[in-house]
Amino acid sequence: MLTIQLHNLLFHSYHGLYEEEKILGNEFEVNITLLQHTVAETITNIQQCTNYAAVYALVEQRMKQATPLLETVAQDICKLILQNFSLVDVVSISIKKIYPPMVKMQGSVSIHFELKRS
Fold first, then answer.
1. Number of neighbours of residue 102 by Cβ within 10 angstroms
2. Whole-angstrom distance, CA of residue 99 vs CA of residue 47
3. What is the DSSP annotation of the chain?
4. Residue 53, CA distances (Å) to 25, 49, 50, 72 in order
5. CB 3.0 to 4.6 Å from 30: which of 1, 9, 97, 99, for a disulfide?
């Protein structure tokens, strides 16, 4: 099993339930872990593993689509990765809203989702 991780991907996006979030947007941090079955004893070319640059491009495109719930965004990203990268068996994602619009709150909020190929 091969683990591929994308750490601290930063996006300015317009996800959220409140009008303020839809207008001003927010900062989000995305972390993704991919578990991939290996196709060769020794990996020697990109076709034998998951291209993390292509995964990033997919995530970047989805983060541009304003969505009320982060849970929906996480589920969509996991489904897209499994649909587009046949070597991936498990996708785990966390999305952190760095500045949640909550009065007197200091800190951030995040969700975590994992999806396995069936």
1. 10
2. 39
3. -EEEEEEEEEEEE--SSSHHHHHH-EEEEEEEEEEE--SSSS--SGGGS--HHHHHHHHHHHHTS--S-HHHHHHHHHHHHHHH-TTEEEEEEEEEESS---TT--S-EEEEEEEE--
4. 25, 12, 9, 23
5. 9
Instruction: Convert the pLDDT of each residue in 34-71 to its tens digit.
Output: 999 877 788 899 889 999 999 999 999 999 999 999 99
pTM value > 0.90: yes
Between CA 11 and CA 60 the distance in angstroms is: 8
Please, what are the domains in the chain?
Answer: 2-116 (3.30.1130.10)
User: Residue 90 is which amino acid?
Assistant: V
Rounded distance, CA 44 to CA 82, Å? 23
